[in-house]
Amino acid sequence: MKRIVMALVAVAVVALTATVLVLNTAPDGAVLTASGDTHVVPRAAVEEHAVEDYGRPLRDEAPDAVNCAGDLRAKKAESVECTADFDGKRKPMTISVTGVDGDRVTVDFAVLNKSA
What we know:
The chain is of the alpha+beta class. The chain has one domain. The protein has 2 helices and 7 strands, in the order H-E-E-H-E-E-E-E-E. The strands form 2 sheets. It has a 5-stranded antiparallel β-sheet with strand order 1-7-6-5-3, with helices on one face. A two-stranded antiparallel sheet has the order 2-4.
């Protein structure tokens, strides 16, 4: 009986460790589509995805609105500065390109805790 309990505890520890590892390494970004001769993601699409995809699936909060300075060039390490509205509090948000594959642009969101 003691061995069964110890085996169950070991399985539970392994399962918990795997869950924490998956949650801590899950991507916190989105995939957008670039278009046009200049190969950019339009400002409106960047703002829309920031509202829809920020923090999914790991954060409970999502911005009510995001306003960006302009379009996002589809080139790795490019970024655009934005302002995100969280329940009436405006916070700076940077949206950065982490990868480009044709027209598919992978981005990451970073929000500073200070108010804008």
